[in-house]
């Protein structure tokens, strides 16, 4: 059996597969189907300083190759997560990445401060797609200066490694990534959902505006992973439309050290365990002892910009 | 809970817009409770997410659903042919709780009957069945309940009482003695009407509510309903429901 483990921020994860934030509840809900420790790490639902009730309904709508969601970051707040849900991961010794967000700089900082280092916490994942209420609602992740400043402050507030999760809704994602890296980001998750809308023609209404995810996003995310993993010397985690192990391998080959699977779980609740298994089988078939020859292998043959 | 591959065994229209579909599963489901549901993978590739449906009947690896055509998923389902492959995740959610009562009243509006059909089969003669729909053309969907003598109302008065199923309930409540419990499933307007009608008596009532779903497992928080719970008011219909205490949810 090939070794699928990876090193991430000094911790060993048994495989490079995680769920994407907000797509696996609080972790326990999937257990009637498979144990959460099937994955290398569990990524929490986005947590905020105070509980959030989220957006009105409808919150989801599907398209042929993806879905649009407007959950609105409903969550129980960082305090209740650690009081009520974290003990489950502790008792089972499951590594976690804590996704968090705020609607102001202070909310980000205070939320990060509340999360105490723990051997099971691999990293904090900053969701940079949130609108900054103090700056008239422009999202934190769209402006390089804002990205630099917020990442820097979060880094000062915590000793846990910090991952910047970027939004695709920018002209030059490389520029945003450099800003985050200068601010001290220890890694990246690429990508978050893309702003999108639905029109119901029969009712002449727009029932939903939200974030697009699923296979439609895959080529966009792959390109971001490729470019940023080449340009910035820190781990990149790939996300966006990964449906099976071939997709996951594509992200690893494009330069991702790990992958996150979101929407696929709604289409096939066993997508994650199948991807974990498929990566192992691929390594065995290719006679690779581990993931080293896979991760970023497409960088070597790249013949320049296109 | 299981995720089972299956094949469509039959798919027929029972009334205009209403279909009954039998699915032969490869392997058994965990025994479903009345009120639980499944997530169905629609055949073909046009429909991305699964769709939730009540378990109309389940026996020995054969699952029966009743559905009404409302949009692209159910339209595709209506065109589905014998032998087309599907996948069924379930049984999901929390079903009805049947406690000891003198009377059970089942209130169903239109396709809401699909959600309470297996409950009615469980309660049998012990239940008073009240069914409301638009016109008498829809009545074939309760044909198989005839031995249980359901009471009917139609909006156009073409059969039974003219009016809503809540009007029908109203006509029955006065004659009931002892303690009763209501089980209901139907459109939102029916549920609000029902709540208003039984507010004064505060009759115990469980309702099966519907919401658009992505996962059906409590993973995405796409399907929430507001309740009176103060710490976590927004409950997931697929996980904490789909059956709720009428007096706990906000309508
Ligand atoms: C627990 C549960 C059990 C259900 N049981 C049954 C059943 O036994 N038989 C049946 O016919 N239907 C049932 N439904 C409703 C059924 O899921 C929807 O009709 C179906 O998902 C619509 O899919 P569509 O692709 O055809 O519609 P879409 O194209 O997605 O939407 C078309 C229209 O349908 C409405 N709609 C979409 N999803 C739902 C929903 N979940 N509930 C109500 N309206 C919706 C939308 O508001 C929209 O106007 C149930 C729903 C839930 C949550
Ligand atoms: C229902 C849903 C909820 C999400 N919630 C969050 C969240 O709380 N925080 C976050 O950073 N991303 C969130 N996302 C984005 C995903 O984590 C992921 O980046 C995106 O969906 C792309 O991956 P996918 O195509 O595999 O789903 C959410 C996505 C979905 C579909
Ligand atoms: S449908 Fe995903 S939480 Fe209910």
| Counted beta strands of chain B | 16
Which structural class is indicated by helix and strand composition of chain A?
alpha/beta
State the end-to-end distance of chain A. Answer: 38 Å
Rg measurement of chain B, Å: 18 Å
Radius of gyration of CA atoms of chain A, rounded to a whole number:
18 Å
Number of helices of chain A: 9
**Secondary-structure element pattern of chain B, one letter each:** EEEEEEHEEHEEEHEHEEEE
Largest sheet geometry of chain A:
8 strands, parallel
Written overview of the protein:
The complex is a heterodimer of chains A (306) and B (251). The mean pLDDT of chain A is 96. Chain A has an 8-stranded parallel beta sheet. In chain A, strands 5-6-12-11 form a 4-stranded antiparallel beta sheet, with no helix packed on it. In chain A, strands 1-2 form a two-stranded antiparallel sheet. The radius of gyration of chain A is 18 Å and the shape is globular. By secondary structure, chain A is α/β, with parallel strands linked by helices. Chain A has helices at residues 78-92, 105-114, 144-157, 173-183, 218-231, 245-253, 264-267, 271-285, 297-300, and strands spanning 6-8, 11-13, 17-19, 42-43, 60-63, 66-69, 96-100, 121-127, 162-166, 187-190, 194-200, 205-213, 236-239, 258-261. Chain A has 9 helices and 14 strands. By secondary structure, chain B is α/β, with parallel strands linked by helices. Chain B has helices spanning 72-78, 112-123, 165-173, 188-198, and strands spanning 2-15, 18-25, 37-41, 51-54, 57-59, 62-68, 85-92, 103-109, 127-133, 151-154, 161-162, 180-185, 205-208, 224-226, 234-236, 243-245. In chain B, strand 14 and strand 15 form a beta hairpin. The longest helix of chain B has 12 residues, at 112-123. Chain B is globular. The A-B interface holds A 22-25, 29-30, 32-33, 45, 51, 53-54, 57-67, 69, 71, 74, 76, 80, 214, 265-270 and B 1, 3, 45-50, 87, 89, 211-215, 217-224, 231-234, 239.
């Amino acid at each position: 059996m090939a070794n699928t483990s990876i090193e991430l921020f000094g911790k060993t994860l048994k495989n490079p597969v995680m769920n994407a934030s907000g797509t696996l509840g609080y972790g326990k809900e999937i257990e009637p189907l498979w144990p959460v420790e099937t994955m290398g790490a569990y990524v929490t639902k986005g947590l905020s300083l105070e509980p959030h009730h989220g957006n009105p309904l409808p919150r989801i709508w599907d398209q042929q190759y993806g879905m649009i969601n407007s959950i609105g970051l409903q969550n129980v707040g960082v305090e209740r997560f650690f009081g009520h849900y974290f003990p489950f991961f502790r008792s089972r010794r499951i590594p976690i990445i804590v996704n968090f967000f705020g609607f102001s700089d202070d909310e980000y900082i205070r939320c990060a401060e509340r999360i105490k280092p723990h051997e099971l916490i691999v990293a904090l994942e900053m969701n940079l797609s949130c609108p900054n209420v103090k700056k008239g609602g422009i999202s934190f992740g769209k402006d390089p200066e804002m990205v630099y400043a917020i990442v820097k402050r979060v880094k000062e507030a915590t000793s846990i490694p910090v991952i910047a999760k970027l939004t695709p809704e920018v002209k030059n994602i490389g520029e945003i990534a450099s800003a985050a890296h200068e601010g001290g980001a220890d890694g990246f998750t690429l990508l978050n959902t893309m702003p999108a809308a639905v029109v119901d023609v029969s009712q002449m209404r727009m029932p939903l505006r939200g974030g697009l995810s699923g296979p439609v996003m895959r080529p966009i995310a792959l390109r971001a992973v490729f470019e940023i993993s080449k340009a910035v010397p820190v781990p990149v985690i790939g996300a966006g439309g990964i449906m099976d192990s071939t997709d996951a391998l594509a992200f690893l080959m494009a330069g991702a050290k790990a992958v996150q699977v979101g929407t696929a779980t709604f289409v096939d609740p066993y997508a994650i365990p199948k991807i974990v298994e498929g990566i192992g089988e691929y390594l065995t078939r290719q006679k690779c002892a581990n993931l080293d020859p896979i991760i970023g292998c497409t960088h070597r043959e790249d013949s320049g910009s296109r | 809970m299981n995720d089972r591959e299956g094949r469509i065994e039959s798919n027929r229209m029972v009334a205009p817009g209403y279909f009954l579909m039998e699915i032969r599963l490869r392997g058994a489901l965990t025994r479903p409770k009345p009120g639980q549901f499944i997530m169905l993978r629609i055949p073909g590739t046009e429909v991305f997410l699964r769709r939730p449906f009540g378990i109309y009947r389940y026996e020995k690896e054969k699952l029966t659903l009743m559905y009404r055509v409302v949009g692209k998923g159910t339209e595709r389902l209506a065109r589905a042919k014998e032998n087309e492959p599907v996948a069924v995740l379930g049984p999901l959610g929390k079903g009805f709780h049947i406690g000891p009562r003198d009377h059970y009243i089942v209130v169903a509006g239109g396709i809401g009957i699909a959600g309470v059909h297996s409950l009615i089969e469980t309660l049998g003669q012990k239940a008073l069945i009240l069914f409301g729909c638009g016109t008498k053309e829809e009545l074939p969907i309760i044909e198989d309940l005839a031995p249980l003598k359901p009471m009917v109302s139609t909006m156009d008065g073409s059969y039974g009482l003219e009016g809503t199923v809540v009007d029908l309930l109203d006509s029955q409540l006065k004659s009931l003695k002892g303690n009763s419990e209501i089980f209901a499933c139907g459109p939102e307007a029916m549920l609000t009407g029902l709540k208003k009608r039984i507010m004064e008596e505060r009759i115990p009532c469980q309702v099966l509510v519907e919401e658009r779903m992505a996962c059906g497992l409590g993973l995405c928080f796409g399907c929430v309903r507001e309740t009176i719970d103060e710490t976590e008011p927004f409950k997931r219909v697929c996980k904490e429901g789909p059956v709720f205490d009428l007096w706990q949810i906000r309508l």
